[in-house]
Amino acid sequence: IPDFFPHSTMPPSDAPMKFATGTEIDLPESFIHKEQSVDTETFLAETDTAGLLVIKDGDVRLERYMLTGGLDVRWLSMSVAKSFISALVGIAVGEGKIESNEDPITKYVPKLAGSAYDGVRIKDILQMSSGARWNEDYSDPESDINQFGRIFAVGGSLDNFAATLTREKDPGTVNHYNSIDTQVLGMLLVASTGRSITDYMTEKLWHPLGSESPAHWLIDNGGMEMAFGGLNATARDYAKLGELYRLGG
User: Fold this and answer.
1) Which one of 3, 92, 220, 230 has the fewest CB atoms closer than 10 angstroms to its CB?
2) Cα separation of 101 and 82, whole Å?
3) DSSP string over 35-50
4) Number of Cβ within a 10 Å radius of residue 130
5) Residue 115 annotated to the active site
6) How confident is the model at residue 144 (pLDDT cuts 50, 70, 90)?
7) β-bridge partners, 20
8) Cα–Cα distance between 241 and 16 in angstroms, integer?
9) Neighbours of 109 (CB within 10 A)
């Protein structure tokens, strides 16, 4: 991804954390899905799986790379990035940068006044119950998510797009998967910390996690990160967020 698109970079930690190696396990020859037996190797081939990493109790038990995969290959996160953004929001609340997740987001991001997010609690956005009208149908070329994604092809501002959304439901009443909710949380992080997502995450999360490899964020023309899915990192470094939660933070 960094070879083709504008991006920012998070350098690896000066104190990298390396997972221990545990007793190697094998994948089962088959598994049951919808009452049908599925051959595991066939499934991996048909889904173009390129990396598979299993960590249990802090030990690597299975690590397998196929196709373009490899230990040092950085993968586009897609929506896994959302988990990093929500963690950063929690850190910002813990530091007092955000006073409370009960606050309306427009307290910190006045640019969203008049949009679907006007007066909406941060908590409702974290839980994807913002009430914003949104179509995330990737098969529809005119869906909101595809129009949003075209910013990386033709240029534009992720923040400006977010401010165009209108309200469909009362906030906090309906859970509706909406990637732009996470982009709005990215705007909140930048506004409340006075730093880019890349800079704040490097200090508060990426380095404390003990990242072993550099990582990248896709950015728009104004340098804003694609918060809902634009993180690029190795499989092992992604796994460290899971390990952080397994250990209770």
Assistant:
1) 3
2) 16
3) TEEEEHHHHHHHTT--
4) 29
5) no
6) confident
7) 59
8) 14
9) 22
- pLDDT, one tens digit per residue, over 34-53 is 999 999 999 999 999 999 99
Query: H helices within 95-143, ranges in order?
Result: 122-126
3-state SS assignment for residue 191: helix
Q: Which residue has the tokens 């595809």?
A: 146
Q: How far is CA 62 from CA 21, 209, 247, in A?
A: 9, 21, 20
Set 8, 77, 79, 100: catalytic member: 79
What angle, 0 to 180 degrees and rounded to 10, lies between the N-to-C axes of helices 81-94 and 179-193?
A: 30
Q: Is 94 exposed, middle or buried (0-12, 13-18, 19+ CB in 10 A)?
A: exposed
pLDDT digits (tens, 9 = 90+) for 207-221: 999 999 999 999 988
Q: Where are the alpha helices (DSSP H) in 62-202?
A: 81-94, 122-126, 144-149, 151-154, 158-162, 179-193, 197-201
The whole-angstrom separation of Cα 119 and Cα 234 is 38
Helix, strand or coil, per DSSP, at residue 235 = helix
**Alpha carbon distance 177, 135 (integer Å):** 9
